[in-house]
Amino acid sequence: MSSFTEDLVVRVAYRTEHGRRCVDVVQPFAYEVGFPGSGDLVEIEVGAGSDYGSTPRVSWLVDPPFGLCAKADVVHDDLYRTAARPRAEADRIWLEAMGVESAKLKAEGQTYAPFWWRLLRYVVVRLVGWRSFGPRHPSRHPPRSRMLKDAAIAWTLGVLVAATCWGWVGWALIEILFALLLSL
Q: Of 8, 85, 130, 181, which is least surrounded by CB within 10 A?
């Protein structure tokens, strides 16, 4: 079974990425992919940033960003930021790392992430993770204009109020417009 080579040591960074507080790695940290002695290491350098699990705020009650798979999330963030490996491989390594971290927590008698939860997180990232991989990673772009985002929300709410008489077609159009505006 693969393993983490060191404990994760981070410090809170006074910056955010898409509204999420970031941390910086303080000590070198690595994850050995596959089996012990494989020589396939994912090395995270000092100063590498992470927001742990990039989960939407709505889901923080059941899946906090600094939850049970924090080490695996830091490895995944680094793989996405650097694009050192293909996206599918980065996601597979993340799933494996979540399993390793959960097995260690379970062996210590602590709360751990069950397989179905890890698989659910993996499937969601496979579906929407392309938005943050490599050149699209938030650390490579300046933050979006807050005014533009607020205007998009206000416009969408105005259209939403006007569309209530359109039935389900209006709601579908509103959902599509809202998604498009927030992805600017």
A: 130
